[in-house]
Amino acid sequence: MSAFGIGTNAERADSGLLAGRQIKIACKAWFTSTGAIQPLSFKFEGDDGMMQTVNHVAVRFGEEKYYSGIPSMEYACRAVIGGLTQEFKLIFYPEEGRWVMVLPE
Predict the structure, then answer these.
(1) Is residue 12 part of a domain?
(2) Which of the two residues, 43 and 11, has the higher pLDDT score?
(3) How far, in Å, CA of 65 to CA of 76, rounded?
(4) H helices of 25-77, where?
(5) Is a pLDDT exceeding 80 seen at residue 10?
């Protein structure tokens, strides 16, 4: 440990506030034999109240993050939603077993 605390708490650095519009989703994911999680598809309720299904989620990368000290897995994704290719994040909160989609504002 250095005199100024550099390197302390480097394992659990907080990622700050989660920016964007959060939407609760039901996610279908594949858990590999090594424990890695791969989102495959998901469903959510649209602004019109209708359920929408998003298939063929392309995950660009995933990384472990902490938002306000809460552990999560964040995935940068791309998929066709409503006929348009969208970029968004999928966040998995393992302690709660909950998924959210985060759309950029």
Answers:
(1) no
(2) 43
(3) 12
(4) none
(5) no
Q: Report residue 105's pLDDT band, with 50, 70 and 90 as the boundaries.
A: confident
**57 lies in which domain range?**
21-103
The yes-or-no verdict on residue 94 having pLDDT over 90 is yes
Residue 72 falls inside a structural domain: yes
pLDDT of residue 40: 96
pTM of the full structure = 0.82
Residue 78 lies in a domain: yes
Tokens at 37, concatenated: 């999680």
Is 66 inside any structural domain?
yes
Q: How far apart are the first and last CA of the chain?
A: 40
Number of independent structural domains in the chain: 1
What's the distance, CA 103 to chain centroid? 10
SS3 30: strand
State the CB neighbour count (10 A cutoff) for residue 75: 22
One-letter amino acid of 73: M
Q: Are 67 and 17 in contact (CB under 8 A)?
A: yes
